[in-house]
Automatic annotation (TrEMBL):
Record localization: Membrane
Gene3D superfamilies registered for this protein in UniProt: MFS general substrate transporter like domains (1.20.1250.20)
Region (Disordered): 32-64
Transmembrane segments: 124-146, 158-176, 197-216, 222-244, 256-280, 311-332
Superkingdom field: Eukaryota
Membrane topology according to the record: Multi-pass membrane protein
Gene Ontology terms: cellular component: membrane
Keywords recorded for this protein, A-Z: Membrane, Transmembrane, Transmembrane helix
Protein name (Swiss-Prot/TrEMBL): NFD4 C-terminal domain-containing protein
Key word Transmembrane helix present: yes
Organism lineage string: Eukaryota, Viridiplantae, Streptophyta, Embryophyta, Tracheophyta
Length: 367
């Protein structure tokens, strides 16, 4: 059996002495052959302990939790303001005294962020109030017409069958308006970047035509008016709620949805009860006085003729026109938004979801 010898260099003993604390050793080492034997003789170096530096705690010992939280908040505040980016480093308590200028810069950043947030909330409030008044004028007027459709038919001398036809037409065209209002506005937005609030303005202008047909009542005008008013009522709802989701986002959509819905009963009360009901009763009393009759207690007032609803629907048409003009302000305020690609962020989210699903499918296949 052949043996192999390792030739060590001449100065190998010096290396061993340097490595093992100036004590010559042989192979196998003593501390290897006898487990538990220390490699260094600490009794010999006990005299050198005075030269060793004193033990000090790590830097994290002097780094308090409050300083860490303050540094994190200051970093977030500085990063949120894109115009004034600042490099903020973590500092210990010993370095807290020279950081007074940094505290002032953080306070300035906070004030800038608060100013930006206040401007954002003001803008949202203005846009929402514009939309709120538009719903009061538009939906309130069309709901008043739908609510008084049967009474209008009786006043204008239509039969009960014709009145039932009016109600059916309003219900059918209400549904078609909800479908076509969202569909047409979506096509126009994608192809021509047509602003959604401008679509609402057009719907209100068309509704004015229906109100004027009721007011002046040309031959067969109530049939056409029921179609126009029913279609515009449905189209307004679809366009209004889509506009809310696009302009204000989906974070508080449920609150804004209910806030927009609140405009409908307000408009209905003002235009139906306060305006139309009052003017109808006044005209009915005039007709009773012209016939020399007096109204008995609990007797219903009945009015016949075009004049019963003429002034009411002229006022409703004027209010609806004012809502259309106010909605033009919203069109001007959101024109830059609708000229941009408003669905870009949604496409990014969809692409990220597809990539995640693809990676999950790959992992499942590998497993």
């Amino acid at each position: 059996m052949a043996t192999t010898c390792l030739d060590l260099p001449q100065n190998s003993s010096n290396h061993l002495e340097d490595y093992h604390g100036r004590i010559s050793a042989s192979i196998p080492f003593t501390w290897e052959s006898q487990p538990g034997t220390p490699k260094h003789n600490f009794h010999e170096i006990e005299a050198d302990n005075d030269n060793l530096p004193p033990l000090t705690p790590p830097p994290s010992y002097s780094y308090s939790v409050t300083t860490r939280k303050h540094a994190r908040k200051s970093k977030k505040l500085a990063l949120s303001d894109g115009s004034q980016l600042q490099v903020i480093t973590d500092k210990t308590k010993n370095e807290a005294s020279p950081s007074l200028p940094q505290a002032s810069s953080v306070s300035e950043t906070c004030s800038l962020n608060q100013a930006q947030k206040s401007k954002f909330h003001v803008g949202v409030t203005i846009d929402m109030l514009i939309l709120f008044y538009t719903v009061i004028a538009g939906v309130g007027g069309t709901l008043t017409a739908i609510d008084n459709l049967g009474q209008m038919g009786l006043s204008l001398g239509y039969s009960q069958r014709s009145i039932s036809t009016f109600v059916s037409l309003v219900s059918i065209w209400n549904y078609l308006g909800r479908v076509m209002g969202g569909l047409v506005s979506e096509i126009l937005l994608k192809k021509y970047m047509f602003p959604r609030p401008l679509m609402l303005t057009i719907i209100l202008l068309v509704a004015c035509v229906g109100h004027l047909l009721v007011a002046y009542h040309p031959p067969g005008g109530l049939y056409v008016a029921s179609v126009i008013i029913g279609f515009c009522f449905g189209a307004q709802w679809s366009v209004v709620f889509i506009s809310i989701s696009e302009i204000f986002g989906l974070k508080y959509y449920s609150t804004l949805y209910n806030f927009g819905t609140l405009a409908s009963p307000i408009g209905l009360y003002v235009l139906n009860v306060t305006v139309t009901g009052h003017l109808y009763d006044r005209e009915a009393r005039k007709q009773l006085a012209a016939l020399g009759l007096t109204r008995k207690a609990g007797q219903a007032l009945n009015c016949t003729g075009v004049q019963c609803f003429r002034l009411s629907f002229i006022i409703i048409a004027a209010v609806t026109l004012s809502g259309a003009l106010v909605s033009v302000i919203l069109v001007l305020r959101t024109r830059k938004f609708y000229k941009s690609d408003i669905y870009k962020k949604f496409r990014k989210k969809q692409s990220l979801l597809r990539r995640r699903r693809h990676l999950q499918d790959i992992r499942l296949c590998l497993c």
